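[User] I wish I could look at a protein chain and see how it folds. I have put the entry right below:
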Amino acid sequence: MLACSRSLNSAVVSALRLLRSNQTAVTGQLERPLSTQTDGEVRIAKILKEKFPSASSLKVVDISGGCGAMYEIHIESSEFKGKRTVQQHQLVNQALKDEIQNMHGLRIFTDVPQH
């Protein structure tokens, strides 16, 4: 995990650039298309889909280069309506409380669908 943490900043920058361009992710010697999810991404998405069944949009990205140390989550759900951003993030953190124990960091972006 320590070696993974050292390259975390460059992995974060690379992941954000790739999210914008929707190209193939290249981290060190590992190359994977963004459409291929890691086990961690699948597991976290499953938990969030169960906790927020009315989510109209959900995206989970391992931004640690594939080692599972840091994730970025974008979730849009009507369940966030009327809640402040910090409350929305607390709901996501609570849903992932067991998963978070094994992470170095988590970036959360929440929103309410615009109808």
About this structure: The chain is about 40% helix and 25% strand. Residues 63 and 83 are 27 Å apart (CA to CA). Helices lie at 2-6, 8-21, 39-51, 85-95, 97-100. Residues 21-31 have pLDDT under 50 and may be disordered.
